[in-house]
Amino acid sequence: MKFALFSLMMNLPNAITGESLTTQQKFHNILEQAKLAERLGFDAYGIGERHGAPFLSSSPPVVLTAVAAATSRIRLLTTVTVLSILDPVRVAEDYATLDQLSGGRLEMIIGKGNDPRHYPLFGISEEEQWDSLGERYELLKRLWTEENVTWQGTYRPPLQEVTTQPRPLQQSIPIWHGSASSTRSTELAAKYGEPIFSSNSFHPQAKYKALIDHYRERLDYYGHDANRAVVGSGAGSLYLANTREEAIRRYTPYYEAFHATAAAQHNQSPFKDLEDNIAHGPVLIGSPEQVIEKILNYHAAYGHQVLSISVDGLSHTEQLEQVERFAQDVAPVLRREIPSFIWNEPPLLNQSLPFSSSTSHSSDSWPPAISPIFQV
Description:
The protein is an alpha/beta fold.
C-alpha cells in the first residue's frame, strides 16, 4: 500500500486551548507538515480545494508550488480540484506550470466538490455540477494532449486554435476521479479508463463500496481491464494512542469542534457520536493495532492501493506527532500486507530545478518518463 498525507487547511481555534493561528502561521505549518511527510517516506502530499471558512485552501496550485519548492521527491496531489466550477484553460495553465516547477510530480484528483458554497461564487447552479464537470474535463484533457484546440461548449466561451502554455512536463499528467456520492463520477472515470479516489470520509463503508463496485463494472463495459483498476481511498480522521480509550478521550474535543461547523453538517453524517463513527464509519481512532485492523477491513472491501490520511484540526504539535506515529507504527505493516503496482518508480525530476533541495540525481537512476499509473 502507498500513502498520501493531505490537508484542507482547516483553520479553527484549537478545541482544547482556544489558540488561534494567523493565516500566515497556518501556511507555514502546512509547509512543515509536507516536509515531514517527505522525510517520513509518504508517497504523496495533497491539498484540497475549498472556498469558504474554516478552510484556507482556495488556491491549491499556489500552495502546492510552495510545497514543491520545499521538497524534492514527494508526489503532489490535488485532493480535490473542484473542476466543475473552474475554467479549464486556467486549470491547464496553472497546473502545467506546477508540473514544470515540481519536476513532474503532479497528480490531479478532480471532482465536483462537496461544499455547495462554491457554486454561486463561480456562476453555476448545483444542478449543473455533473454536466459542468464532464464538459470541463473533456476540454482539459484536450488542452493537455492537443495543440491548436478548437472547441465550443456551455460553460465557457468558444476556443479557436488554442495551445495553452506552458505544456506539462510529464507526457501525461496522471488524473484521478474523486468519488463520494454519485455514479456520475465513477462513470466518467470508467469511460476514460482512469483511477478513482474514494473520499471515504462521512458515511458507512457500504456506500463507498457500492460506488467502487460500480466503477469496476463500468470499466468492463467500456472495454478496460477491471483487474488493473486503480483505487485510492481516504480514511476520515486519524488519532493514534496507546489504547482505544486514550485515543477517544484525546480526540473527542477535536471531533466535536469540526462537526459543529457548517461544512461538516452539510455532509449529514449518519453517526451519532465518535464511538459510533469508530464502530461503523471510516475514522481511524485507536491503537496502532486497531487502526491497522480497520484499514485491512476496508481494503478487503475496496481493494485500494493508496490510502490518504489527514490530521486537520489538531494542534500543530499533535499533527506532527500523529503523522510520525502513523509512519512508524502503521505504514510499515500495511506496506508489507497490501501489494501495490503503482508508484513503484520515482517521479520524473527536472535536474535543472533552481530550488531543488536535494542532491541532483543522474539520468541512470531517475527514468526520463513516468510510468502510467493505469494502463489499459
